[in-house]
Design goal:
The protein is mainly α. The protein contains 13 helices and no strands.
Length: 280
C-alpha cells in the first residue's frame, strides 16, 4: 500500500465516523424537537468556511510539499519512510500541533484565523470543519522543523493529516467521558473544554491526538459544568463573511490607532486582548 493511499484511507475513515455522529446528532435533535433554524444556520455557516479554506489549502499543501522537498534535497541526511518512522512522525506532528495550536491562541495575528473555529455557539461535528482561510499557512511554518530533521515530505504530510483527521470526532456533545482513555487521549470531553469561553476553560486542552502534552505543559482542564461555547466577546453571527473575517475589523482599527511601528507590531504579536497601557 502506498503512503498516499494510506493518507486517503485514514482521512476517509474519520470522515465516515464524523458523518455517522452527525446523523445521530441530527436524529437526536429531531427526536427531542430541539432542531432550530438557528442551529441549521450555524451548521451552514460552519460548512461555508470550507470554501475559502479549501481554495487556499490547495495551494498551501502544494507549496508545503515543494518547500519540504527542497529542504530534503539540500540535507545531507534523511529518515527513510518505514512503519517506525511514520509512527515517530505522527508523534512529533502531535507535539508540533500542540504548540502550533497554543501559539495560535497567544498571537493575535494568528488568532484572526483560528478564532473562526471558536466562534460557533454550538458544538457539533460540523463545527470541526469551521476554519479560517489562512490557518494552513501557520501550520506549514510550524512543521518546518520536521523537514529539517530529515523526514520525507510525504511522511510530514501524513503526520499532519493524521493529527487533523483524528480530531473530526471530537466536536460533539453526543459522546460523554470515556473512562481510562481520558487520561492520555484527547476526547470529546476534553475538546468541549477547549471550545468553552468560561474563564476556567479559556486556553486549555490544546492537544490533537494525545492530551498528555496539556498535562505536561500545564494547560489541562477537566470538563466539569457544561461549557459556554463561542468567543469570549459577544459574537453570534450566521453571516459567512462576518464569520470568516470576524477578528479583522477590530485589529485593523487598533492598528490604525497605533502610535508607531513598534506598537503596531506588538498589536500583531501579543495575545488577543492586549492593549497599550494608556488604552486599557
Amino acid at each position: 500500500m502506498s503512503l498516499e493511499t494510506l493518507i486517503l484511507q485514514i482521512d476517509e475513515a474519520f470522515f465516515l465516523i464524523g458523518a455517522a455522529i452527525l446523523l445521530i446528532e441530527i436524529a437526536e435533535m429531531l427526536f427531542k424537537r430541539s432542531f432550530k433554524v438557528r442551529t441549521f444556520g450555524e451548521m451552514l455557516v460552519s460548512a461555508s468556511t470550507q470554501l475559502p479554506y479549501l481554495l487556499v489549502e490547495t495551494f498551501l499543501l502544494t507549496g508545503a510539499y515543494g518547500l519540504y522537498w527542497i529542504i530534503a534535497q539540500a540535507l545531507p541526511w534523511s529518515i527513510p519512510v518505514t512503519w517506525w518512522s511514520l509512527a515517530l512522525v505522527v508523534l512529533l506532528a502531535d507535539i508540533t500541533y500542540y504548540w502550533e495550536h497554543r501559539i495560535a491562541h497567544e498571537v493575535r495575528l494568528l488568532w484572526t484565523q483560528h478564532a473562526v473555529h471558536h466562534s460557533s455557539r454550538d458544538m457539533n461535528i460540523v463545527t470541526g470543519v469551521r476554519f479560517g482561510p489562512f490557518e494552513g499557512l501557520w501550520s506549514l511554518i510550524a512543521h518546518l522543523p520536521l523537514a529539517l530533521m530529515g523526514f520525507a515530505p510525504e511522511a510530514i504530510i501524513f503526520g499532519v493529516i493524521t493529527v487533523l483527521a483524528y480530531q473530526t470526532w471530537l466536536h460533539t456533545e453526543l459522546i460523554g467521558k470515556l473512562g481510562p482513555l481520558e487520561g492520555f487521549l484527547n476526547t470529546p470531553s476534553h475538546h468541549r473544554v477547549h471550545h468553552g469561553s468560561d474563564e476556567k476553560y479559556l486556553d486549555k486542552n490544546y492537544g490533537g491526538i494525545l492530551i498528555v502534552w496539556d498535562r505536561l505543559w500545564g494547560t489541562f482542564q477537566v470538563e466539569e459544568e457544561r461549557p459556554r461555547y463561542g468567543l469570549k466577546r459577544d459574537f453570534d453571527s450566521r453571516n459567512p463573511l462576518r464569520v470568516w473575517f470576524s477578528e479583522w475589523p477590530d485589529l485593523l482599527r487598533d492598528l490604525a490607532r497605533a502610535k508607531g511601528p513598534r506598537q503596531a507590531l506588538a498589536l500583531l504579536l501579543r495575545p488577543p486582548g492586549w492593549a497599550p497601557k494608556g488604552d486599557r
